[in-house]
Amino acid sequence: MSEFEDIPGTYLFDKDRCHDGYQFNMFCMSLVKPKNRQAFRSDEASYMDKWSLTESQRRSVLERDWLGMIKAGGNIYYTSKIAATDGRSFQFVAAAMSGVPEEEYRSMMMAGGRPVEGNRSKREAD
Amino acid sequence: MARVVAGLATSHVPAIGAAMDLGRTKEPYWKPLFDGYEPARKWLADLNPDVIIIVYNDHGSAFSLEVIPTFAIGVAEKFLPADEGWGPRPVPAVHGHPGLAWHLAESLILNEFDMTIVNEMTVDHGLTVPLSIACGEQKNWPCPVIPLSVNVVQYPPPTGKRCFDLGRAIRKSVKTYDKDLKVVVFGTGGMSHQLHGERAGLINSKFDKNFLADLTRNPQRLIELPHIEYVREAGAEGIEMVMWLVMRGALDENAVEIYQHYHVPASNTATGLMILENQPLTV
Ligand SMILES: [Fe+2]
pTM, whole model, 2 decimals? Predict the structure, then answer.
C-alpha cells in the first residue's frame, strides 16, 4: 500500500485518478458555462452522453452520490461545479461525503473540525 | 529599480469571498474572521504598493485537466473573474502589469524556472479572494496584479523547496526591472483543510500554528516537509500551503513578522494570514 493510500478517507488526485477520471472531470468542467448548466439541468442523462463516462461515473452524478463521484475518478474542484449548478455549497458536499447531516458537520467544524488524531493512518484507525 | 518590500500569506477560501459578496461579514459566524482582516487592510492601504504578485492556484477555471502547468504567469493587461459554476464573483476586473510580468517571465526562464506564459486567462477565487481579504470591498483594485499560478490540484505539486527557490528567483528578477516599483508578493491557500472523501473537514491547528511560527524564522524546516506530511497532517487540500513558501522565498532572510491572524473555521477550512516585511535598506 502506498503511503498516500494508507491515509483513511482520502483519494489523492494522482496519475491514475486523472487518467480514469479525465472525461468525467472534463464533463464537470463544462458546467462553468451558463448555457451548459441549463442544458445539463434540463436533461442530465443525455447531456452526459457527450462524454464517454463509465457507468459508475454516470450513476454517481444522477444519484448525487458525492463520495461515489470521487471514487470514480472525480476531483473535488471539478465535482464541486455540479454542486454549484445545484446551488449547493462545498460544506453541503463535504457533509454528504463524510456521511453525516449538514448540521452535524457544521457543528463539528465550529468545534474545531475533524481531529487528525485517529485519522492519520488506516493502520492507526484499526 | 523595482523591489519586493513585503509579503502577505492568506487562505483563499471561496466562502470568504461569498460572505463579502452577500454582505454577511457582520454575522456572528464571520465577524471574528473579518475583524482579524482589518489590520491587514490598513497595513496594505498604508504601504500603497505599485504592484502585487499573487501566487495562487487555479481550481479548474482558467486551466482544466487538458493542460496542467506547474508554474504559469499571466502577462495580460486584464483578467476577468471566472465563472466557477455559480456565475463570476461581483468584484472588479483585475488589471495586470504586462511590463513587469513579461520581465519576470523572461528573467525566471533564463534563471531556469520554466514558466508557462499566459496571454489570456480568467482568475478564480484563488486570486480574487485574497484581494478581497487584503483590500476589502473596492470599485477598483488599488494597483495592478500579476497572477502567478501553481499546480496543487494534480499530484504532484512542485516541492516546497522548488516553491521557495522560485520565490528567491522572483526576488532577484524584480530587482533587475528598471522602473522604480514597490512590489508586494502574496502567497495564498491553506491552511489545514480537506474537502473530499470521508475525512473531509480535517483541521490540524497544531500543524498550522507550527507552520505560522516557522515561516519567518525557520523556513528551512518547512522547505523540507514532504508532500505526504501535508496530506496526512494538514489534509489533502492543505498542500496548498507550499504556495506560502514562494512568498517566503521572495522576501529577505531577515524579514520581520508584522502581523498574524488564525481562525477556525471558514466553511471547511482553517484560515491563516501573515504579513512579513523586509527590513528597510540601510544605506
Ligand atoms: Fe485553493
Answer: 0.97
